Amino acid sequence: MKDCVVVGGGLIGMLSARELALAGVQVTIVERGQAGQESSWAGGGILSPLYPWRYPAAVTQLAQSGQAGYQALAEALFEQTGIEPEWQQSGLLMLDVAGHDEAVAWAQRNDVVLERLEDDDIQRCEPSIQGFQRTALWMPEVAQIRNPRLLAALRRSLELLGVVFEEQAEVVSLQQQGGRITGVETTTGIHQAENVVIASGAWSRDLLAGVGCSIEVEPVRGQMLLYKGPPGLLHTIVMQDGHYVIPRRDGHVLVGSTVEYVGFDKSTTESAANALRQVAEQLVPELGAIEVVRHWAGLRPGSVDGVPYIGAHPEVSGLYVNAGHFRNGVVLGPGSAQLLADVMLGRTSGLNESLYAIER
Ligand SMILES: Cc1cc2nc3c(=O)[nH]c(=O)nc-3n(C[C@H](O)[C@H](O)[C@H](O)COP(=O)(O)OP(=O)(O)OC[C@H]3O[C@@H](n4cnc5c(N)ncnc54)[C@H](O)[C@@H]3O)c2cc1C
Question: Whose CA is closest to atom 19 on ligand 1?
Answer without folding.
Answer: 329
